[in-house]
């Protein structure tokens, strides 16, 4: 089904997902409505106008020290030195046009197999993984926080699990079967030592939340066809 935003057909071919294509069109139409983009303007002008929309309409609160301290206490595991994991993975990559449901089913079936026969991990990585690490049995070597995308990091460092993780890990790259072979505990950094990093992390999270809220409001006011977005008709999104 063709994706349409307020009756405008959206090309999906240049975007990782129909949702992202729809969000871009929502923002482009908002720029038009505000008079910051001329009708028929080219892609470069559209991108500049969208940047202006986000800069002027999305309010991102600056974190104060009390908020930073709360965030630090809620995310202590992020602020440790020397914490390492040694892991392996098998990647089922999601590419444009890939049958995602079928890909996930294959990954789930392999995960179930490896639960009963973990010794097959390296062989399955070599034959099925879409990551270059597949050539070495999926070995990723030693990893620390910040080395991988956030979704993968959360799976690796979220708890103390050793061995095959019980569920697939979904990232922007695809579905991963992950095994953690060893963990090296780190030491907790005091708040004062990481204050600037905590403030940056909190601001980044606040920015992501504010952008998400803004898009939800636009989606709630729009007519969408062929795509589903988490939308609300009220600007007072909690």
Could you say what the CATH architecture of the largest domain is?
A: Roll
User: What share of residues are in beta strands?
Assistant: 15-25%
Distance between the termini: 32 Å
Structural class: alpha+beta
What is the rounded Rg?
22 Å
Count of DSSP strands: 10
The CATH C-level name of the largest domain is: Alpha Beta
Unreliable runs, pLDDT <50, ≥5 residues? 233-238
Folded structure, characterized:
The structure is a single chain. This protein has 238 residues and is of the alpha+beta class. The protein has two domains: 87 residues, no CATH class; 109 residues, Chitinase A, domain 3. It is 44% helix and 18% strand. The chain has seven helices and ten strands. The strands form three sheets. Strands 4, 5, 6, 7 and 8 form a five-stranded antiparallel β-sheet that branches. The radius of gyration is 22 Å and the shape is flat.
Quickly list its features.
single chain; 238 residues; alpha+beta; Chitinase A, domain 3; 2 domains; five-stranded antiparallel β-sheet; three-stranded antiparallel β-sheet; 7 helices; flat; disordered C terminus
Please outline what is shown here.
The protein has helices spanning 18-33, 43-57, 65-74, 100-116, 121-128, 150-157, 191-220, and strands spanning 3-5, 8-10, 80-81, 84-93, 139-144, 163-164, 169-171, 174-184, 187-188, 224-225. By secondary structure, the protein is an alpha+beta fold. The protein folds into 2 domains: 3-61 and 198-225, no CATH class; 80-188, Chitinase A, domain 3 (Roll), CATH 3.10.50.
């Amino acid at each position: 089904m063709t994706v349409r935003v307020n009756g405008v057909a959206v090309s999906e071919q240049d975007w990782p997902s129909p949702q992202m294509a729809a969000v871009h069109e929502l923002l482009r139409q908002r720029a038009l409505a505000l008079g910051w983009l001329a009708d028929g303007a080219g892609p470069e002008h559209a991108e500049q106008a969208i940047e202006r929309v986000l800069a002027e309409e999305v309010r991102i609160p600056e974190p104060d020290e009390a908020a930073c301290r709360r965030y630090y206490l809620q995310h202590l595991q992020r602020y440790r030195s020397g914490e390492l994991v040694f892991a392996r993975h098998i990647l089922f990559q999601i590419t444009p046009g890939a049958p995602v449901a079928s890909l996930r089913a294959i990954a789930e079936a392999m995960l179930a197999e490896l639960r009963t026969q973990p010794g097959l991990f390296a062989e399955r990585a070599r034959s099925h993984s879409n990551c270059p690490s597949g050539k070495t049995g999926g070995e990723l070597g030693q990893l620390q926080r910040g080395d991988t995308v956030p979704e993968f990091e959360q799976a690796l460092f979220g708890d103390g699990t050793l061995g095959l993780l019980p569920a697939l890990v979904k990232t922007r790259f695809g579905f991963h079967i992950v095994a953690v072979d060893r963990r090296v505990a780190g030491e907790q950094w005091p708040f004062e030592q990481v204050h600037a990093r905590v403030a940056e992390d909190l601001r980044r999270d606040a920015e992501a939340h504010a952008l998400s809220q803004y898009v939800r409001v636009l989606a709630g006011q729009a007519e969408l066809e062929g795509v589903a977005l988490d939308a609300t008709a009220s600007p007072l999104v909690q």
